[in-house]
């Protein structure tokens, strides 16, 4: 039925219904578009599409388990992804695989010059992942603030604000005067003045940058402008073998050890066989040793009796009586000898006491008469004079014999020319 055939009331109601349906479709379309836009925004925000990403690269021995798009981790967080994997030229003897990845903000601020890219196993299927380590010393890989060049006089004026740090290595020979990350202090500025350092670069902490413009150069020890086609900052790789390589090495080790293990099992089987034979021989030995055990038990029973002890076997009764008699006689002899020895020692002691009293009496007489020695000497001299006088007397001269000893002569020859 055509629209013209409808009544005016039906045409009015139909137009109202068409308008409601149109508004509903328009509102649903708007909500669908808004939901789609919100979903895209949340996905982009979650994946970091709106965040600044800085490039890094490293070199590994092989790319097993690594793929473009794999996540890069830092302290357990997903901070970036791998963007490029490429084999190095065959003439390169030091590096095999080039891997480039990006780290989003603010996580690239945790990476300093001592950070590393650790490559480890992710699961048992051979996948691996890259984890960058947080820096602890040195300069940040990318400058997070603006850089300025100052003179010593300008640095002394700005030092009070405590918002300026050194942005380069300043050395005098092998002596390092300043290092990036150190604040401006009077001591460091005095060292720079003594070393005749006119200008140097600093980091202005008052001027943070959302997009870093400078990258750290380890060789020159300072920040440089980021090139247009920069590969990023190089991180040293700390690579562990893939899980498949480890399993292969374990399998190879087991295969190499299997022949020895089989020979060991064969030897063990031989040892068990020999042990079984030894047990059978031991049973036979025990059966043959049963009479010996019985005899030994009988001997031990005899030994435990009053007349079957080992002492009675070694020393019969008559020998034991003789030994007792001999020992008693020896004891009497020792007692008499002891008595005689005591008597002899008492006699010797009495003799020593008599000698001591005699010497003491003599000493007392000598002490009482101090002229006895001179008198005895005079007596001897006078006696000699009397004898000499008797020798010269004519009546007694013949009673003394002639001299038998010749007079003493000197045996020393006189010198020539000396008077005799």
Can you give a write-up of this model?
The protein has 420 residues and is of the alpha+beta class. Helix content is 46%, strand content 20%. It contains 8 helices and 15 strands. The chain has an 8-stranded mixed beta sheet with strand order 14-1-4-3-2-6-5-15, with no helix packed on it. A 3-stranded antiparallel beta sheet has the order 7-11-8. It has a two-stranded antiparallel ribbon with strand order 9-10.
Sequence of strands across the biggest β-sheet: 14-1-4-3-2-6-5-15
Q: What is the count of DSSP helices, taking H or I runs of 4+ residues? A: 8
- Low-pLDDT windows of residues: none
What is the element string, with H for helices and E for strands?
Answer: HEEEEEEEHEEEHEEEEEHHHHH
Shape: elongated
Q: How big is the Rg?
A: 63 Å
Major sheet characteristics: 8 strands, mixed
What are the salient characteristics of this protein?
15 strands; alpha+beta; eight-stranded mixed beta sheet; three-stranded antiparallel beta sheet; 420 residues; elongated
Summarize the topology:
Elements: H1 8-47, E1 53-60, E2 71-74, E3 77-87, E4 97-104, E5 116-121, E6 128-132, E7 145-151, H2 152-158, E8 164-166, E9 170-172, E10 175-178, H3 186-194, E11 199-208, E12 214-217, E13 222-225, E14 233-234, E15 236-239, H4 243-288, H5 290-304, H6 310-314, H7 317-368, H8 372-392
Parallel strand pairs: 1-14, 2-6, 5-15
Antiparallel strand pairs: 1-4, 2-3, 3-4, 5-6, 7-11, 8-11, 9-10, 12-13
């Amino acid at each position: 039925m055509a629209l013209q055939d409808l009544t005016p009331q039906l045409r009015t109601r139909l137009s109202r219904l068409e308008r409601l349906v149109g508004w509903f479709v328009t509102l649903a379309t708007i909500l669908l578009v808004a939901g789609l836009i919100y979903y895209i925004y949340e996905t982009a925000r979650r994946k970091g599409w709106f965040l600044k990403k800085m490039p890094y690269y490293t070199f590994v021995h092989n790319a097993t388990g690594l793929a473009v798009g794999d996540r890069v981790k830092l302290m357990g967080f997903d901070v970036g992804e791998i963007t490029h994997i490429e084999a190095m030229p065959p003439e390169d003897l030091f590096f095999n695989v080039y891997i480039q990845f990006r780290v989003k903000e603010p996580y690239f601020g945790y990476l300093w010059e001592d950070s590393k890219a650790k490559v480890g196993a992710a699961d048992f299927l051979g996948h691996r992942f890259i984890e960058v380590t947080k820096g602890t010393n040195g300069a940040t890989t990318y400058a997070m603030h603006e850089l300025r060049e100052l003179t010593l006089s300008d640095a002394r004026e700005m030092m009070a604000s405590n918002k300026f740090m050194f942005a380069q290595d300043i050395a005098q020979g092998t002596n390092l005067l300043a290092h990036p990350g150190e604040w401006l202090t009077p001591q460091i500025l005095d060292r720079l003045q003594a070393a005749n350092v006119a200008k140097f670069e600093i980091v202005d902490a008052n001027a943070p940058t959302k997009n870093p413009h400078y990258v750290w150069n380890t060789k020159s020890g300072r920040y440089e402008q980021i090139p247009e086609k920069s590969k990023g900052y190089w991180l040293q790789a700390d690579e562990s073998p893939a899980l498949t390589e480890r399993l292969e090495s374990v399998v190879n080790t087991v295969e190499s050890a299997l022949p020895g293990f089989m020979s060991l099992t064969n030897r063990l089987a031989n040892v068990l066989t020999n042990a079984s034979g030894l047990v059978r021989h031991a049973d036979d030995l025990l059966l043959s040793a049963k009479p010996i055990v019985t005899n030994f038990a009988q001997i031990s029973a005899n030994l435990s009796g009053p007349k079957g002890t080992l002492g009675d076997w070694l020393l019969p009764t008559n020998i034991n009586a003789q030994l007792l008699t001999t020992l008693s006689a020896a004891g009497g002899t020792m007692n008499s000898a002891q008595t005689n020895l005591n008597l002899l020692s008492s006699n010797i002691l009495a003799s020593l006491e008599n000698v001591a009293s005699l010497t003491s009496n003599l000493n007392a007489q000598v002490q009482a008469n101090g002229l006895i020695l001179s008198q005895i000497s005079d007596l001897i001299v006078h006696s000699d004079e009397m004898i000499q006088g008797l020798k010269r007397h004519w009546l007694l001269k013949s009673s003394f014999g002639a001299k038998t000893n010749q007079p003493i002569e000197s045996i020393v020859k006189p010198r020539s020319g000396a008077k005799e």
